[in-house]
Request: fold
Amino acid sequence: MKKFLKTLIPTELAKGLLLTGKWFCQVMFSPNRGKSKLHIVDEYPEVPAKVQPRFRGRLQLLKDAQDEIICVCCMACIKACPTNAISLVAGKKEGRKTRIPESYDFELERCIFCGFCVESCTFNAIALNHQFELAVYNREDMAIGLGGVFQSIDKPSPVGKFSYSGKE
Ligand code: SF4
Ligand code: SF4
Reply:
């Protein structure tokens, strides 16, 4: 009987409509309506999409205020990476006391975006930036290094121009 009544009176449908109506009225009749935009969805891809602050995108080598790579080649990130996605060759630079990477290679297709590398770096020299559009046409373009032709590890990638790169 209960089941039969449920089919006659679509309560779930009514509940859904009530909820939609509630939100609609809140937007339409709110005193701040004139001040706030009616669009409550992101206009992606016309407007670059912002992700949550802790979003983990592509690995990026960070630079200091003097535009110098912060990394001192301690190798902690390489040891912490469970997929061996990072490799580097340490080098020296005149006038710099600490080591500097001669090459820093990151294989995007191996990365599982776990963030262990970033956590392990006590120098805050790397970050997972806010880029989420990481598709490429060739597998080679997923090998990202210093001064890369297509993507460079110390710059946000040109792919993903519609995603917001919060950490540059
Ligand atoms: S996010 Fe994880 S998988 Fe990707 S490079 Fe860092 S440690 Fe390796
Ligand atoms: S842990 Fe940080 S400083 Fe050490 S090699 Fe990795 S990026 Fe460079």
Summary: The chain has two domains: 1-40, 41-168. The chain is about 20% helix and 15% strand. The longest helix spans residues 11-28. The chain has a mean pLDDT of 84.
